[in-house]
Design brief:
The complex is a heterotrimer of chains A (440), B (126) and C (469). Chain A has 13 helices and 17 strands. Chain A has helices at 11-21, 51-64, 84-89, 92-95, 107-124, 136-150, 165-178, 194-202, 226-231, 317-320, 333-371, 395-404, 428-439; strands at 69-70, 128-129, 156-160, 181-185, 187-188, 191-192, 206-212, 236-241, 259-263, 279-283, 296-300, 306-310, 375-377, 386-391, 407-408, 411-412, 418-421. Classes of the chains: A alpha/beta (440), B alpha+beta (126), C alpha/beta (469).
């Protein structure tokens, strides 16, 4: 047998081990498998590569990817990742550990999750956060399930048309199989229509509603009165948010929401073609026992020292099985660490500055694009880093011009608009070049 | 040895019932609290919720387990014991002294299906 | 490992900064121009710390943690194999990390999906995979949705029940419930395998299918799988394969050949990607040919956990057709070696060759006497921590009261297994002599056993909860 660096066994050792077991060959360990299930063919895989060959292979693939400056958002935002984050998250004590089942040797993981939960609570204004979910859209789907579970006999959830399409899509999937009825709250001037919400509540059976705080047009929504309307119907409000924006805009708690969800990706996580990201989910203390996923709590050890443990586990699948609040077993722990380190570095002032930079640069681009005469404005509402325009040329043509000039943007929305997003990473030079490529 | 009180009715899911007129006062037995270990949370229905004989109305939780509570009678919840919700330890301290819910019974004949103290004693010995 | 007692909030000093950002434009409006009604009242209470504060703090936290790179991690059903370092470099390549998920014509990234799809199909005997699920349980849910779609597409609306063995992972019944299916439990027989006679009467036209883990959570191969598959198929149901236990079959047996229609894989278990303290994982779902039209079920935001998918593909390319054949066999060798070396001191409930893992039912001699309680499985687990080993999975599966579930993996050497065996024997001897040594364990870890009851009764779930009381 040729050596392989991940398998440490020598032939001699294999023999000794087989002797201890009392069998003659490795194949004998599969004597209980019906013979015709033992795969006899050659596996249709490439020849084993050396480390250098693998590196070359991926570098070859990397060269085939277009290298574009990102002026797009729609749920994934190109914010800067400070060098400290990958340095910390690559520490093997964090990277190669599993879920902190043995708390005595997992205090590192448990402490950063506790810090993460605290940070999500201060950003959203909520009382309780879980240890994280897969991504924003699945967190929204879990919020839908939680609202139905909490309000017991009601089975309809209202979903705003101004939520990102991928969030609405995942909610619809989960709802379909759970037998939950979804009704869409209409859009009015680019925002969730309060009149439509009221009308749908009046139809009855509403367990809750999910609305965005910054929506798919980039507009900062005014959610005034929505929580009251729902609460007087004994229904709940979930707000889907961009956690980076929450450093400056009104929190879900200030809007009177019961649950806050969203994707932590804008907090320094690279785009990485869609993942891994991290969903967050927080709620008021009243609903703590219905919150899905892992939760870390503080306690003391036998000597009275501060210690952290996984807690409120009776909600979870390994105890409740089919009666659990959710089937979720893992969290996105390492990505939660990513977010925690980011927020530690940024602090309240850094978060304010990131938002100011986004605000200034996106408004600069907004003005410059209108000046080209190739667009018309659509909505007159405050935005932070993302906005839509009505193009006077075809979106495909626009996108082609942009990519030829080295940019990715002008995403077409379902309403025929195009959207742009500007983060602090995009310079004024890049914006001018983008505008120039469109003017041509 | 688990305590069993005379004069109460018992279900095979380890709830006890004390009857006061049309009201059934419901708790869990000493045997049940011992099986659970340290109880960390008592999940209760709301007042005015309907309960049905044999179906779950709440749950007990400990650190590593959860156990559903089943109603021994049908009817409407008239009262919930906030004391045990606030401090679940009370159930461990005295399971018979700390009831969980009171139910206005819709069919008192359902009580006939429950065990008396002697039958329950024999039941938990098995 | 040493105890370190800070939280990042406790290092905070008003006015200290750890960030580096471009200057804002002093003449332009900023977020203060947003109407007051839309702005938050107070700034969030995030810490204000320097870059070095952050680096030291998290380095100190990491030193209270145990990973696969620290030592042996025989956590049953979790497949804690070595995480190759080259994979980390590849996943961090800027040409991949900088791609927006909605970008089109990303040829390099798309080839990774295609290549991994083919490789996983070759290893499992499935036709195609979807990579949208972000974890194993997420894959289970996706697979069950595919099963429901299949039945619905044929107008078969009655199949809303799913059979799950009593030995299954807790996620199986939970995923079924989230998918709107009612769970029907099939019992295990005395040999720890699905009882075919118990299964037979359960099969009717309301059954959507069966979820099987093979080898099951006892590490035993379900020998009757052929009969089970033909019974379930004959009744119109489908077979779901829980890939959590795929590792021993890699390179030896393919679920597709056993009659499974749908399966998930845990790339973070079988294909070496790091567990990251609980995630991110990736749970691609593979299906047989007739289910390919239903693979598009939309369960996550974008393209799945691409960073994890890249790592798994790099690992498979290094395995190649040559090394793949040994992967499962060496994992199985290690598990049987430990089992045979310890079964005279730990109770082995089912005497049989196991696959990648096996389950003991506590100590043979727990040291119990008149005035002293014996050592239980929790005590054994905690004592292992003192000797620099992670504990096995404990109290699962639920079939036994004192379950200790041990899974080595093929990346552990004989010396490592011998060291673990020696310590397990020593702990058994300690228990027999004086169980109190175990009751008090662990003694050498950053903290001792915590008070979990108080944590659950009075939950302190964020920094400010503790300050308030």
């Amino acid at each position: 047998m040729a050596g392989f660096q991940y398998f440490p066994h020598t032939e001699e050792e294999i023999k000794v081990m087989l002797d201890r077991i009392g069998v003659k060959s490795l194949d004998d360990l599969y004597a209980d498998v019906p013979a015709d299930f033992l795969y006899k063919g050659e596996y249709d895989l490439p020849d084993a590569m050396s480390e250098q060959q693998v590196r070359d292979f991926f570098e070859g693939l990397a060269a085939k990817n277009p290298k574009l400056k990102v002026f797009a958002g729609a749920g994934a935002y190109d914010h800067y990742t400070p060098a400290v984050i990958p340095y910390i998250t690559q520490r093997s004590e964090f990277l190669t550990a599993y879920t902190p089942y043995q708390c005595e040797i997992s205090q590192g993981t448990l402490r950063y999750i506790f810090e993460y939960q605290s940070m999500i609570c201060t950003l959203t204004g909520m009382d309780v956060s879980n240890a994280s979910m897969y991504d924003g859209p699945t967190a929204a789907a879990e919020a839908m399930r939680m609202m139905v579970a909490q309000t017991r006999k009601k089975n309809t959830v209202l979903v705003s048309n101004t939520l990102l399409p991928n969030v609405r899509g995942v909610i619809a999937t989960y709802a379909k199989y759970a037998g939950i009825t979804i009704k869409e709250i209409a859009q009015e001037d680019g925002q969730t229509s309060k009149a439509s919400l009221d009308a749908l509540i009046a139809q009855g059976d509403v367990a809750g509603a999910i609305v965005p705080s910054v929506n798919r047009f980039g507009i900062i929504e005014n959610l005034e009165g929505m929580a009251d309307a729902l609460h007087s119907d004994k229904s709940l409000l979930t707000v889907y948010c961009d956690p980076s924006a929450l450093a400056v805009i009104k929190t879900p708690a200030e809007w009177g929401a019961d649950v806050a969800v969203g994707d932590g990706q804008p907090l320094g996580i690279p785009l990485c073609y869609g993942g891994p990201y991290v969903g967050f989910m927080a709620c008021r203390r009243d609903y703590m026992r219905k919150l899905p996923g892992r939760i870390v709590g503080q306690t003391t050890d036998k000597e009275g020292r501060r210690a952290f443990v996984l807690t409120l586990q009776a909600r979870e699948q390994h105890i409740r099985r089919e009666k659990a609040t959710s089937n979720i077993c893992s969290n996105e722990s390492l990505m939660a660490l990513w977010v925690t380190v980011y927020l530690s570095l940024m602090g309240p002032e850094g978060m304010k500055q990131v938002n100011d930079l986004c605000y200034q640069r996106s408004h600069y681009l907004y003005g410059k694009l209108l000046e080209t005469g190739k667009f018309q404005p659509v909505f007159d509402a405050p935005f932070l880093k993302e906005f839509v325009l009505k193009p006077l040329v075809s979106p495909a043509e626009l996108q082609k011009k942009l990519s030829d000039a080295g940019f990715f943007g002008a995403l077409e929305t379902e309403d025929g608009y195009v959207s742009f997003c500007v983060t602090e990473k995009r310079s004024y030079e890049e914006m001018d070049a983008l505008v120039e490529s469109i003017r041509k | 040895m688990s305590k069993v009180l005379e004069g109460l009715k018992y279900s095979d899911t380890h709830e006890w019932v004390k009857v006061e007129g049309e009201i059934a006062i419901i708790g869990v037995t000493d045997f049940a609290q011992k099986e659970m270990g340290e109880i960390t949370y008592v999940d209760c229905p709301d007042v005015d919720d309907d309960v049905e004989k044999g179906s779950e109305f709440g749950a007990l939780e400990s650190v590593k387990a959860a156990s559903d509570l089943f109603s021994p009678v049908s009817g409407t919840v008239t009262e919930v014991n906030d004391a045990v919700v606030d401090d679940p330890r009370l159930v461990n301290d005295d399971a018979f002294g700390n009831w969980i819910i009171k139910v206005q019974m819709s069919d008192a004949s359902e009580l006939d299906d429950l065990m008396d103290a002697a039958a329950y004693k024999a039941f938990i010995k098995e | 490992m040493k105890y370190y007692n800070k939280l990042i909030f406790e290092l905070s000093k008003q006015g200290r900064t750890g960030y580096s950002l471009p200057q804002t434009c002093s003449k332009c409006a900023g977020t203060d121009a947003i109407p007051t009604a839309l702005r938050r009242e107070k700034q969030p209470e995030l810490p204000q710390v320097s870059e070095m504060d952050v680096v030291r703090h998290y380095t100190n936290l990491s030193q209270m943690n145990f990973g696969v790179d620290t030592g042996f991690y025989p956590l049953g059903s979790c497949t804690m194999k070595y995480n190759p370092k080259i994979n980390e470099e590849i996943a961090a390549m800027p040409a991949f990390a900088g791609i927006h998920p909605l970008q089109k014509d990303v040829a390099g990234a798309d080839e990774i999906y295609k290549g991994l799809d083919q490789a996983l199909a070759a290893i499992t005997g499935m036709k195609h995979f979807t990579f949208k699920p972000c974890a194993g349980a997420h894959g289970e849910l996706t697979g069950l949705m595919i099963i429901r779609e299949y039945h619905l597409s044929r107008g078969d609306t009655r199949r809303t029940r799913i059979i799950v063995p009593d030995s299954a992972h807790g996620t199986n019944p939970a995923s079924a419930a989230v998918c709107g299916l009612d769970v029907v439990v099939v019992k295990s027989n005395a040999n720890g395998l699905v009882d075919v006679e118990d299964l037979r009467p359960l099969l009717d036209d309301t059954i959507a299918g069966i979820m099987m883990t093979n080898p099951n959570t006892l590490g035993l191969f379900e020998k009757d799988i052929r009969e089970i598959a033909s019974l379930v198929h004959a009744s119109g149901g489908l077979l779901y394969y829980d890939g959590a236990n795929m590792n021993p079959l890699i390179g030896t047996v393919r679920p597709g050949d056993m009659g499974f229609d749908v399966m998930h894989l845990n790339l973070h278990k079988s294909f070496s990607t790091p567990h990251g303290g609980g995630g991110p994982g990736s749970g691609p779902v593979g299906v047989c040919e007739k289910l390919v039209p239903f693979l598009g079920v939309n369960v996550s935001g974008f393209n799945g956990n691409f960073g994890v998918i890249m790592r798994a593909y790099a690992y498979i390319l290094m395995l190649g057709r040559q090394n793949v054949k040994l992967c499962g066999k060496l994992a199985t060798l290690g598990a049987n070696y430990i089992k045979e070396s310890l079964k005279d001191v730990y109770k082995l409930p089912i005497e049989s060759v196991c696959k990648h893992e096996f389950v003991f039912d506590g100590l043979i001699n727990d040291g119990a006497r008149e005035d002293k309680e014996g050592a239980c499985t929790l005590d054994v687990a905690k004592r292992l921590l003192d000797f620099g080993y992670h504990a096995p999975t404990i109290y699962f599966p639920l079939l036994f009261h004192q379950a200790i579930m041990i899974e080595p993996t093929e990346t552990e050497s004989k010396e490592t297994l011998d060291g673990f065996i020696e310590v397990m024997r020593m702990i058994a001897a300690e228990a027999a002599q004086d169980p109190d040594i175990l009751h008090g364990a662990p003694h050498n870890t950053p903290i001792s056993r915590p008070d979990e009851t108080t944590a659950a009764r009075n939950p302190i779930l964020k920094y400010w909860d503790a300050c308030a009381c």
